[in-house]
User: Fold this.
Amino acid sequence: MTLVDTPVITAGGPSLTQERRLVTAIPGPRSQELLARKAEAVASGVGHTLPISVVAAGGGVIVDADGNSLIDLGSGIAVTGVGNSAPRVVEAVTAQLHSFTHTCFTVSPYEGYVAVAEKLNELTPGAHVKRSALFNSGAEAVENAVKIARHFTKKQAVVAFDHAYHGRTNLTMGLTAKNIPYKSGFGPFASEVYRAPLSYPFRDGGLSGAEAAGRAISVIEKQVGAENLAAIIIEPIQGEGGFIVPAAGFLPAIVEWCRANDVVFIADEVQTGFARTGAWFASEHEGIVPDLVVTAKGIAGGLPLSAVTGRAEIMDSAMAGGLGGTYGGNPLACAAALATIETYEEDGLIDRAREIGAVLIGRLNALRTADPRVGDVRGRGAMVAMELVDPASGAPDAALTSAVAAYAHANGVVVLTCGTYGNVIRFLPPLTISDELLIDGLSVVAEGLKHA
Ligand SMILES: *Cc1c(COP(=O)(O)O)cnc(C)c1O
Assistant:
């Protein structure tokens, strides 16, 4: 059955009314209709967090088919940092759409791809000579970074960390730490992938960065050996694993060990990149210069694009034809990326990420002081989370976390959970959100905590 009435709002972007507005229960009747179709048409393994039927989004809101306007504190998982349907992105993609949509860059090149590579080479940490290659998804870029590191070093082993998330393709599933839902039953996984312990200040008994790095390096030396190790890959702040910020000094010590041992250091900045943490890249907060940087999510305002950027001698080691793909660096996605990067620059969104972070940390710390179930508040810039625990034992409280998220969803706030133990609520608002909406959204989360 199709409902006759068409929704009132179809145009998105920042001109949407910036308010939380509920006119039906969540999900409303039109959303329920879509969800019923989804259940019949879409594989159940493709889940969803918030059961609405989206018709428009922009600024800091998402509007559904029933006319509800929800506060967006997730940015489609850190993708729409510049907001949905950001004006420069819409304009650039529309213009590109009218010129050409595809040639395959490896058949016939075009300027947009080269311009994105130039921008990435300029913006990523380090003054060394760099090269970039473009792909479609974060996982695809991670796979390519590993491929390139292996080709360059002529070694095979790769080390990833506890709580890591690097994607859902075969190699990246193997790199990812969490079993359910990412790995269970999907093996066999790629060989030559090893895991090292992370620095997790809230849960590792207060190891210093240097101590945690020493522990990780010892595991790597004992169980793998530098002579076999092509690359270490790490998220400078872990995303899906629980917004874990390693203790100061951890990342620099790992980088230093890599340099001394001819191991390629790969920073997976897919979630942390592009203004999100109050810097272009989270590596900057620790002053580290990765050999390779993997980017995706925030790069192109919602269009699918990803990249590997790094030292020219490493990037150039693969033979021509060894890297690429039919769609990698699609012209529409490249136009979107250039417009997105210009928007971060021109609209001061790196500073805005820091301001948003100050509001988030301030409000969440106030919650923590008042409520011992908020065990930890952490993050950088507009990438902040709270970890919910049983106050008596400190044990992770996933049920409480689900209850708070469900309350927020029912009351018009899009929040995401994460964490190995499912007990972390993460905040990744678009950098175009107003303080008013942000504070309203956080008040709903605070109410949710009270009710739970
Ligand atoms: C999301 C994510 C990926 C995977 O990106 P996809 O585009 O979903 O393939 C890889 N690494 C990190 C850190 C991520 O957050």
About this structure: Residues 349-370 form the longest helix (22 residues).
